[in-house]
Amino acid sequence: MHRIVVHLFVLASLTLAVSALAQSYQWPAEYAPTLKQGGTIQETTFGDIGTLNPYLTSSANETAIFNGVAGPSIVLRDWAGTRSFKKADGSFNLYWGKEIEEVVPEQEFIITVREGWKWSDGVEMTTDDVLATYTIVGDPEVESNDFSCSVVDEEPVEVEILGKYQYRVRLAKPQVNAISQNECVTTNGLMPAHIFMPVYEAQGAEGIKTMWGVDADPSEIISGGPYMITEFRPGERLVLEANPSYGEFVQAADGSPIPGPDRWVVTVTEDQNQELSRVVTGQASFYWPTTLDQVRALREAVDGGTISGTLNANIGPDTLVDFITYNFNNTDPCKQAMFRSPTFKSAISIMIDRNALVQAALGGLGFPAKDWNNASAAPFDAPNLDPFDFDPEQGVAMIRSLGFTELDADGVLMNPETGCRVEFDLQFNSGNERRGQEALVTSQTLAPYGVKINPREVSFEIWVNSIVGDLDFDETGARTVDYDAQIWGLAGGDVDNPNFDNGLRINSNLNSWNKSKSDVEAWEILMDRLTVKMADTLDLQERVAVYNERAALMREYLPMTPLISPAFHIYTDLSGLWPLEALDANSIESPYRPGGFREHLASP
């Protein structure tokens, strides 16, 4: 499954003997306290890896891997307990952080980190790394996906180094979950100052962007996480092996290394069929099916004894929602006018048969979407919004009201004055059959009504670049990445504050419909302000109300047109997993630390 993600996975860890000098961390007993040691974890995924640089990761494939390389976070979200960054008594769930003084609630903190934690090359982690992480992530020219953690309302987060193991963080104003959302060491993961800062000081943002590309020598990549990259073959596989330095300071409740596996092999496949084939033949340690056919294939393999794992099906709604975005910066003036028109987008939306998409793309195991979040994000699931109507006749009337009053020789609606046709490409990432079906069925449904949609399968690289794009424009003012419309999706998000700061704000990194800083409309400005307001609103019910206001605005203008959301299922042949009651789409699949279930894997 490919998801653009706004947050970071924490991968599994292997520890050696506990160093007498390191101030170690010991996981609570409820987090898989006794784990088998050794062995190999096998993961399979489709869609290639576009960078080995943790500052530049943007897809789930990349972030899931490179948070095994990035250094530790200050705090953890307690998915098996409070589901918060704080315990029931109000104290923080500390990780690399040894002590946190909350000077001003949700605004200013004095953070003391644990001593003795080291990078894979033996250099100790200190506040030098904290300052380097903030400095580089906070440079807009780097175009990091996590730039938003370094600012509050465009005001930089203040970082003051108080000593080798202590620093102060102050935000411009209180923010929801400030210790994580605007604390870059938590959000982005610690980066090694001794590796990145010499390049940054000499070459600036461009130097950082050229580091650790797909042609990098894995032996030169320094790790602060549980694994080190030891092999990478683009389009084939990536191999990670345990980082001995990490093993000196993280243990399970009984003192054994977490999680135990000493090798992690990620095999890249061409499409979902090839991926499923590896799973049902025992070549994958875990897998998240999304369609009925995938669930059936896994059930048959488990029941037939071909594979020995466990399939938990229909646990609840998945966090993933697929949707369409249209490129406001399209170089074709006819298409740009269509894509910027709320009437046009609303017309296309009600001409989409979402129930048919659920059947065709998910085999019925899913839900029509009405917002970019769904029930898994409750109370942030827009209860004020009605489901989308399916009314193609009304959609045609709306399109005709825009001047597309005639059918051309191909049966496509056109504007007789301008010659513009209601035709556009709808691209999706190669190998993703779910999105391919969504594009195909949508095209077939709308064709009889004079709307010509051309499903277009593109490479994973083109797909990602069309979302992230280039924040610069060429000399003519055109966007450097050009496309018509695209199907992509989002999963996870902050369960306390899904404001999607780096996707719904003007010119943010994952704002895929409009990369312009100046050519924006009044509703985009309002959406930007409501997104900021969500982070400012500490009271939960008031924050939900702001979310609902923004959801209504997004329904009216449709910067993202929701399609469908799958049900959540998980297969694994691993032991030492979470309690069954904790296996929901947020905890086990969340990109949040420590929600990614990789943190607590045991060997087969």
Feature tags:
3 domains, single chain, alpha+beta, five-stranded mixed sheet, globular, D-Maltodextrin-Binding Protein, domain 2, Dipeptide-binding Protein, domain 1, 604 residues, disordered C terminus
Write the layout of secondary structure elements.
Blueprint (H helix, E strand, L loop, with lengths): L24 E2 L13 E7 L13 H7 L30 E8 L3 E6 L13 H11 L13 E2 L2 E2 L1 E6 L2 E5 L7 H4 L2 H4 L5 H17 L17 E7 L3 E6 L7 E2 L11 E7 L2 H9 L5 E2 L4 H12 L6 E8 L3 E6 L6 H8 L1 H9 L3 H9 L3 E3 L23 H9 L5 E2 L5 E2 L8 E7 L3 H14 L5 E7 L1 H9 L16 E6 L10 H4 L17 H15 L3 H18 L3 E2 L1 E9 L12 H5 L15
Parallel strand pairs: 1-11, 2-12, 19-20, 19-21
Antiparallel strand pairs: 3-4, 4-8, 5-6, 7-8, 9-10, 10-12, 13-23, 14-23, 15-21, 15-22, 16-23, 17-18
Helix pairs in contact: 2-5, 9-11, 10-12, 15-16
> Strand share of the residues?
15-25%
Any idea what the CATH superfamily of the largest domain is called?
A: Dipeptide-binding Protein, Domain 3
Give the helix proportion (percent range): 25-40%
Q: What's the architecture of the largest domain in CATH terms?
A: Roll
Question: What does the radius of gyration come to?
Answer: 24 Å
The class by helix and strand makeup works out as alpha+beta
Strand order of the largest sheet: 20-19-21-15-22
